From TrEMBL:
<keyword id="KW-0472">Membrane</keyword>
<feature type="domain" description="AB hydrolase-1">
    <location>
        <begin position="113"/>
        <end position="221"/>
    </location>
</feature>
<keyword id="KW-0812">Transmembrane</keyword>
<feature type="transmembrane region" description="Helical">
    <location>
        <begin position="33"/>
        <end position="55"/>
    </location>
</feature>
<protein>
    <submittedName>
        <fullName>Alpha/beta fold hydrolase</fullName>
    </submittedName>
</protein>
<dbReference type="Pfam" id="PF12697">
    <property type="entry name" value="Abhydrolase_6"/>
</dbReference>
<dbReference type="InterPro" id="IPR000073">
    <property type="entry name" value="AB_hydrolase_1"/>
</dbReference>
<dbReference type="GO" id="GO:0016787">
    <property type="term" value="F:hydrolase activity"/>
</dbReference>
<keyword id="KW-0378">Hydrolase</keyword>
<keyword id="KW-1133">Transmembrane helix</keyword>
<dbReference type="InterPro" id="IPR029058">
    <property type="entry name" value="AB_hydrolase_fold"/>
</dbReference>
Length: 316
């Protein structure tokens, strides 16, 4: 559904741009109006992102997370302005099915990987990861969460099916990497399962305690991600404390979607701070990939082995 919707939006954007470029020399519209419209179509997303970054920077001034300097914020805005179109105009609408789930027989990895995307995204978000995992012959499943704008609770069966399927292939609980809302979806699935049903969960910019930006959302899952929502309180109350030792929370003081920054962390987990890294670009940060490789190397060859103790660090 998301891929189709994003393709429709992409076609409308191309049509508007092409129509303006044709109408301009033919003087069907005034020159100043054509220039304004072309500029809005080409760089309008940068202005929207600028609003997000300003709100983020102002909100984070009163947060307990490390503070970002103005130079960090500007650099993160520029990075996201270049990175987000690649994801929302290319990977997700046009290349979401490029890499199929990889479940090779006799794969050398003792663990499989399940990848879970976030809000208004699909599995195409993970394409660079899927390429590397395929070439490394590491088993993986990348899910598509549906319904796109329904309750986060509804995603549990999708995640469960992927994890059950992976366990049948590898014989071991998998590692899950989840971006943004995907981290909440996995936590929701986990409350009905044993702590050791996952080897480890890595969340990238997940709004574990909500995000102020969700106050602008009207969909059910956006409302659930509001800071202080009843849904988040119920999730935390239902969780098993033992699961926290199996979680790594990656967050950033320049996350333009999840802020205040500390809302992307959870007590009792390992936390990794990525300075100057915006929300979508966090997926492609080398530290995120390295954390997965670390877990793959550390994965025990037998069930029941203990995981490393939680710790915190800041990535370079």
């Amino acid at each position: 559904m998301i891929a189709k919707l994003q393709r429709v939006l992409l076609v409308l954007w191309i049509a508007a741009l092409a129509g303006t470029l044709v109408a301009w020399p033919l003087e069907w519209i005034p020159g100043y109006a054509a220039v304004t419209l072309v500029a809005a179509l080409l760089v309008g997303h940068g202005f929207v992102l600028a609003g997000e970054f300003m709100a983020m920077h102002w909100t984070n001034q009163r947060d307990t997370a490390p503070r970002a300097g103005l130079r960090d914020v500007v650099a993160a805005w520029w990075q996201e302005s270049l990175h987000a179109p690649k994801v929302f105009f290319w990977r997700q609408p046009l290349r979401h099915g490029m890499w199929k789930d990889h479940l090779p027989a006799g794969a050398p990895s003792a663990r499989g990987v399940v990848l879970v995307h976030g809000y208004f995204c699909n599995r195409g978000l993970w394409n660079p990861w899927l390429s590397r995992l395929t070439h490394a012959r590491i088993p993986f499943i990348a899910v598509d969460l549906a319904p796109a704008f329904g309750s986060i609770d509804a995603y549990a069966p999708v995640i469960d099916a992927a994890i059950v399927r992976m366990r049948k292939v590898t014989g071991h609980p998998p590692i899950v990497v989840a971006h943004s809302m995907g981290g909440l979806a996995v936590r929701r699935w986990w409350i009905d399962r044993a702590p050791d049903d996952l080897h480890h969960l890595i969340t990238l910019g997940s709004p574990h305690h909500g995000t102020r930006l969700a106050t602008l959302g009207t969909t059910q899952n956006a409302q659930q991600m509001r800071v202080g929502s009843d849904w988040l309180h119920e999730l935390q109350a239902a969780e098993q404390p033992a699961t926290r030792a199996r979680v790594t929370c990656v967050y950033s003081h320049c996350d333009n979607i999840v802020f205040p920054a500390s809302t992307a962390t959870l007590s009792g987990t390992r936390t990794v701070h990525l300075p100057g890294t915006p929300h979508v670009a966090m997926v492609d940060h080398p530290v995120a990939w390295n954390l997965l490789q670390e877990q793959l190397r550390m994965a025990p060859a037998h069930p029941g082995a203990s995981d490393p103790a939680p710790c915190s660090r800041t990535a370079p």
